Amino acid sequence: MKRIILSIIAVLAISATAIKAQDGGSTAYNFLNVTSSARIYGLGGVNITLVDDDVSVPDQNPALLGQEMSNMLGLNYMHYIGGSNFAGLRYAHAAGSHGAWMASVQYFGYGSIQETLPDGSFVGSFSPKDMSFGLTYSHDFTDRLRGGIALKALYSGYADYTAFALATDIGLNYYNSENDMSLSVVLANLGGQVKRFNENYDRLPFDIRLGWSQSFGTFPLRFSITAWNLTKWKLPYVETGNGLTGDGPTVKDGFMSNLFRHLVFGVDLISSPNYYLSLGYNYKTRTDMSTYSRSFISGFSLGGGLKVKSFGIGLALSQPHTGATTLMFNLSCNFNDFIR
């Protein structure tokens, strides 16, 4: 327990320094906050405590990578809002007797956009894109405590403009298998631009995240709460209303509103290791979409997965607003089953 406390103190000390280092400038590279895991997307889109032999779950916490994922390959595809389509590939392998590494690549395409000059004349179209090339390493400090670090090289190409950045995620996870309790802390998106689009500096969306998940006895449900955007308490949003009362937009900035915009809730059915069902609720997603005719189920996400021999399939679905339905698909393969 002493080692755990010292590790958490060290991580929080690093985070305090990082906040000062990244203060100022505009925020870009927000695609880093879009998960590539259908399992996590079904739990609300943000989760740093899910311990499972699924090669996609280290997506947001490198400390969730482990030797149980050795020699596993994962593919992911997501149809996002509008004409956006995201896809990626990752491979994990054991490193020694207490470590593991993973290599990954992610592509974020935003469809075709018309290109115009300042006078409004049309000159053609372009397809903006972002790419992330990642390398992750994790290490077991004890049988319950694991740390991890992910290094990511980021490339962005928007018409004639390109940029390059480097990002780092640092994570720590404590997992007690006796009561299925997982606790995590993550410093996400540390880093900065190496090559800028222009003379302006765009900072990465640095974030501190805390998470808890646990099941209780033989009850086949596991509950998760993830706190994110912890570098800034106030997250106000504008409530536009239904347009019938004549009232103008209202800024929501109360204590409870800010509190719940920092929290993501999830629950998953774990009655069998061969399948899962998950439900998540992200209040920030729901309130962010209030201006865009959000649907009744805005903020909710639903996921499910199935394992058949060496293969795993995961699906997740959400509808942020009435004009957009997002769908994520994961496919994994454990090559160990072919070489035994």
Supply database-style keywords.
14-stranded antiparallel barrel, 20 strands, 340 residues, Porin, two-stranded parallel ribbon
Polypeptide structure, described:
With 340 residues, the protein is mainly beta. It has a single domain, classed as Porin, CATH 2.40.160. It has 5 helices and 20 strands. It has helices spanning 2-21, 38-41, 255-261, 283-288, 336-339, and strands spanning 26-27, 72-79, 85-95, 99-109, 113-116, 122-126, 129-140, 145-158, 161-176, 181-195, 202-203, 207-215, 221-227, 237-239, 250-252, 263-272, 275-282, 300-308, 311-321, 324-334. The chain has a 14-stranded antiparallel beta barrel with strand order 2-3-4-7-8-9-10-12-13-16-17-18-19-20. The protein has a two-stranded parallel ribbon with strand order 1-11. A hairpin with a 2-residue loop joins β16 (263-272) and β17. It is globular and about 65 Å long. The two termini are 38 Å apart. The relative contact order is 0.17.
